[in-house]
From TrEMBL:
Domain of life: Eukaryota
Record's keyword terms, sorted: Signal
Organism: Amphimedon queenslandica (Sponge)
Protein name as catalogued: Ig-like domain-containing protein
Taxonomic classification: Eukaryota, Metazoa, Porifera, Demospongiae, Heteroscleromorpha
Endpoints of the signal sequence: 1-20
Length: 153
């Protein structure tokens, strides 16, 4: 007879590292509006740390004016852009942008993150992700804890 074992796993990840020079001397980078800290490509962020405009993840390209930059959910078919004005369960984010002197798009949660909306996001600046030669950086936004069911024996 199979036995059902419920295991609760809590991920204790944080942003993997902090860039020592903030902002970096060149290139695209991630920062947090409430910290002033810079993060490298591929950093991880808990959903409960990006749930307000003053806690947003900002993607910045110094010395460039924003044209049409965007955040995109990587796992979506065809890398669909985040709808910054939707505020729905399928697109729970809001965005803010600054056009100059540094192209900046900030992303934060307007409601809770679901299993289908957590994961890898990419930011493209100063143009959208379909433009050849645009600058791209990645961030992983995930739910703080997860429950797993393991079937045993």
């Amino acid at each position: 007879m199979p036995m059902l074992v419920v295991v609760s796993v809590v991920f204790l990840l944080s942003a993997s590292e902090v860039i020592s020079q903030c902002p970096p001397s060149s290139g695209i980078y991630l920062t947090r509006s409430n910290e002033g800290t810079c993060y490298p490509n591929g950093s991880y962020f808990w959903d409960n740390t990006v749930n307000a405009a003053n806690e947003a993840i900002s993607c910045v390209l110094p010395g460039t004016s924003l044209t049409t930059g965007q955040w995109v959910r990587v796992a979506d078919p065809d890398d669909d852009p985040v709808d910054c004005n939707s505020n729905s369960a399928s697109d729970p984010f809001r965005c803010t942008s600054v056009t100059s002197p540094d192209a900046t798009i900030s992303l934060y949660l307007a409601q809770s993150l679901s299993a289908t909306t957590e994961g890898w996001y990419k930011c493209c600046l100063p143009t959208d992700c379909s433009t050849s030669g645009t600058n791209i950086i990645f961030a992983n936004i995930f739910r703080f804890s997860r429950d797993r069911i393991i079937y045993c024996c």
